[in-house]
Design a protein that fits this description.
Strand content: over 45%
Number of strands: 66
Radius of gyration: 34 Å
Structural class: mainly beta
Oligomer: single chain
Shape: elongated
Number of helices: 1
Distance between the termini: 52 Å
Length: 867
């Protein structure tokens, strides 16, 4: 009588099923809806139920089979290979009859002094899903007796106070999975029960009349990280490669992954890692994922372990990721063979892997050593993206029988940081790898980390764009204040920061994205939280994926990608959930679309503390109109009097110009252009914040315009192939002043200075008036190829009044698809409705008729195209 359930006391991201037989005293229900008929042979019945869903859609099922034999024994097994036999005593003079109808199995035992029936029926869980068998033992005894039920298994057995568990590969301390019989409820109901280890039998003392109600339960929990009360290294198991998102998890039989090419909106079915990893022994939640690039190709590395006899084999495999495709895996190799220490059920490995700045992949593996029995760790280095590893450090003893948490983080110049948190210590200890002599330095210890001693530790590490390293951790026993330890990029420890102290956080998983924004995902009070640092400021912890969760547990982040994967539900089917957080640029402004892998990014450096002016020509020739501190930035256009970009060094650029009143409008521009033509722009998200200040002539084109094209040399090269996102100040009144209804549209210019009519037609205003003077307004222009690159999709977004608070409050104003038929004057042999799909030389902002307009937070990033 067994089946498969995963442990319910601890949420463990491990779909290792255990069968729990829960025994409870109840009153007998003798009524049957159908008559029972004798069975001539054994009977097998199965139930299949959803075991796991991914984003609410089916992922995998679990089948539980029960076979009742004519000798009175019962075998319970599941589709994951677990099995256990629950026997019954058939002594001389006792008759046995096996009966059945469509819903019930009756095992009837009649003896001279003891008679009882075991009635089996499938039952539903709270979700209305049939996922267990309940059986009632009802009978009488002449004077009370003890019934011995032998329990047999070919697996290892673990016996605790009120539980017998059979398992092949489970840590006896954490009981992550297997087949179990639990009689704690029967004990609570007053029945005397005990397990005889010598004879492997369960004894139940019964009186003259008895009714006991055991339940065979099948449940499970998928694994994406350690559970919330366990040791944790904050492993990241989401990888974004060129917009192809891979989410890895353990389904109790194998490591698997799903992928999404549309930002997590839809997902593929699950795919095996390699040809199948098989079941993973304890520590089942500590396998690792790495992502690296070799010779222009992108790879994923996976390190995990299996059991072979009395050894644990630490294995690894490398997979090649073709663009927008699945993963092609190499043959699995064994890195370490670890003897299982005497008296233990595993060597309990854990792994963590990270890239260095030279393209190498570093790996640390911790394990319980056979002799002496302490936790040790070894470090490895791969120069071929995880296809092979060589030893770089260790074995090193922690001199402790408690699990250490070890994490790696990238430093500058090919160096590496290894940080460990020990159960018995309040501090972090760390070692630096020096690439110059290929050696690890002795461990040093921090001061004032503030962690509780003799408790479970949870840490997670990552590095920023300057290769400074950060380790997030919680201060208490697997929960507490969220703090961050910091190291400079040469490995010198530089102190601590408190990220959040208002919540009690668990399972920190840190990821630092390419724009240098720090994201830490945690669990607290039944919710998923994100705590971000932008610049030098920590934001308050927030719920980026909503505020309603169903018993969330386990959580993992992406590798340099602000996404999280966690599990919900406290019973089958468990649901794996994916969430993509708001992305922020280096200014703390929300990114509507993530930067594509390897995509170009440009950010204005007007906050570099260097005040300077960049004049609008004529200014003396040469590069006089180029910012000497950012050679991509140029001032151009027309100003009657000397115009300029006046940069204050604190983040603001004032665009200063003047019109020839009544003759010619000022037309100043800020260009982002590589004059060597080495930097060309593809699909882009362009962002700027503008503030209206003053005008000396007014025109319907005045406003915050963004453009993508080839416009810089427009007077000599009139084929400009440019799209504009036009956010204008407003409709000009009879006095020439924009006072009513700002107008928003897109325009296309193929031949300078001829442009199309605005699309979409109409005002498309987002205010009931002109844009106000003195208020910062955010403008985003999205350009994406679509329909396999043949057409163009554009969007305009506005942050009307938040001034970028919490990333900005962005709303879409308009969008338009150029699929042909949008005409102007063609150029260079192109038709009048030519669709501009080629790479662009420049990104720019322009204004008209102004004497001053202020700008900040100007950026351009390459994003992924549409299908």
């Amino acid at each position: 009588m067994v089946e498969s359930i995963h442990k319910t006391l601890l949420f463990v991201l491990v779909m290792v099923s255990i069968v729990l037989v829960s025994m409870t005293a109840i009153s007998a229900n003798g009524s049957l809806s159908q008559p029972l008929s004798p069975a001539a042979t054994s009977i097998t019945r199965s139930i299949t139920f959803p075991f796991l869903t991914f984003m609410g859609k089916p992922d995998s099922n679990l089948t539980e089979s029960v076979t009742w034999y004519q000798n009175g024994s019962t075998k319970i097994s599941d589709s994951r290979g677990n099995s256990l036999t629950f026997g019954v005593p058939l002594s001389q003079g006792v008759s046995f009859t096996l009966l059945q109808n469509s819903t019930t199995i009756d095992q009837k035992f009649i003896g001279p002094s003891l008679q009882y029936d075991i009635l089996w029926k499938p039952v539903q869980n709270s979700k209305g899903i049939v996922d267990k068998y309940k059986f009632v033992i009802v009978g009488t005894s002449a004077s009370g007796t003890e019934i011995q039920f032998p329990i047999k298994t070919s697996e290892k057995s673990v016996v605790t106070a009120n539980r017998f568990m059979a398992t092949n590969n489970v840590d006896t301390n954490s009981t992550l999975g297997g087949l179990a019989i639990d009689w704690s409820d029967a004990i609570s109901a007053g029945y005397k029960m005990k397990f005889d280890s010598v004879h492997s039998s369960l004894g139940i003392s019964v009186g003259p009349a008895f009714s006991i109600d055991p339940t065979v339960v099948a449940t499970g929990v998928p694994s994406v990280s350690p559970y919330s009360i366990d040791y944790s290294e904050g492993e990241r198991r989401i990888v974004n490669i060129g917009g192809n998102i891979f989410a890895f998890y353990y389904d109790a039989s194998n490591l698997v992954y799903r992928n999404s090419t549309n930002g997590g909106t839809t997902w593929s079915s699950s795919h095996l890692v390699g040809t199948g990893t098989g079941t993973i022994p304890s520590d089942v939640t500590r396998w690792s994922i790495g992502s690296s690039t070799c010779s222009g190709k992108q790879y994923v590395s996976v390190v995990y372990w299996t059991q072979s006899g009395t050894n644990i084999l630490v294995n690894y495999t490398r997979g090649y990721v073709a663009p927008n495709s699945f993963i092609s895996w190499n043959t699995t190799k064994t890195l370490l063979t670890l003897p299982i220490p005497t008296g233990y059920s595993s060597a309990y490995p854990a792994a963590n892997e990270v890239n260095d700045t030279n393209g190498n992949l570093f790996l640390t593996v911790r394990y319980l050593n056979n002799s002496p029995i302490y936790y040790y760790h070894k470090e490895f280095k791969s120069t071929d993206c995880g296809n092979s590893f060589s030893l770089s450090g260790g074995p090193t003893s922690t001199n402790s029988v408690y699990r250490p948490d070890l994490v790696l983080a990238r430093l500058a110049n090919g160096n590496m940081l290894l940080t460990q948190a020990l159960y018995t210590s309040s501090e972090l200890s760390y070692s630096v790898y020096s690439s110059s002599n290929s050696s690890w330095h002795s461990f040093l210890t921090t001061s004032s980390a503030g962690m509780t001693v003799n408790v479970v530790k949870q840490i997670s590490a990552d590095s920023n764009r300057t290769n400074a390293a950060f380790v997030a951790y919680v201060t208490g026993n697997h929960s507490g204040t969220l703090k961050v330890a910091k190291w400079s990029n040469n490995g010198a420890f530089s102190g601590f920061e408190t990220a959040n102290s208002t919540l009690s956080h668990s399972l920190p998983s840190i990821t630092i994205t390419r724009n240098n924004v720090t994201h830490i995902f945690t669990l607290s009070s039944g919710k998923v939280w994100e705590t971000d640092k932008i610049g030098s400021s920590w934001f308050n912890s927030a719920n980026p994926f909503g505020t309603t969760f169903n018993s969330p547990d386990d959580i993992t982040a992406g590798i340099s990608y602000p996404a999280a994967l966690w599990i919900e539900n406290s019973g089958t089917p468990y649901n794996l959930m994916f969430g993509l957080s708001n992305l922020f640029d280096k200014f703390g402004v929300k990114e509507l679309y993530p930067t594509k892998s390897g995509g170009k990014e440009w950010y204005s450096n007007w906050d570099d503390k260097i005040a300077r002016d960049v004049p609008i020509p004529p200014c003396g020739g040469g590069s006089c109109n180029t910012d000497p501190y950012d050679t991509l930035v140029h001032a151009t256009g027309y100003s009657k009097n000397p115009g300029k970009i006046s940069i204050d060094g604190n983040g603001i650029a004032k665009l200063i110009a003047s019109s020839d009143i009544g003759v010619k409008l000022s037309q100043p521009r800020i260009y982002v252009r590589d004059l060597t033509n080495a930097t060309l722009w593809n699909d882009t998200e362009v962002t700027i914040y503008g503030k209206r200040v003053s005008e000396d002539m007014n025109d319907s084109s005045a406003g915050f315009q963004l453009a993508r094209g080839d416009h810089y040399f427009d007077t000599t090269q009139p084929c400009v192939d440019t799209y504009y996102s036009r956010m204008t100040y407003g409709v000009v009144n009879s006095n020439g002043v924009p006072t009513d209804l700002n107008v928003n549209n897109f325009k296309k210019e193929l031949t300078y200075p001829q442009s199309t009519s605005g699309q979409p037609t109409g005002n498309n205003n987002f205010t009931n008036h002109a844009l106000p003077v003195g208020q910062w307004i955010g403008h985003k222009f999205i350009y994406q190829h679509k329909d396999s690159g043949t057409h163009v999709h554009m969007e305009m977004w506005v942050d009307k009044s938040s001034n970028g608070a919490n990333g900005g409050t962005w709303q879409k104003v308009i969008n338009y698809n150029d699929t042909g038929g949008w005409t102007t004057v063609g150029c260079g042999g192109h038709p009048n409705d030519y669709i501009i799909t080629e790479l662009a030389h420049d990104i720019f902002t322009r204004n008209t008729g102004i004497t001053e307009a202020d700008y900040k937070w100007f950026s351009a990033r390459e994003i992924n195209p549409l299908p």
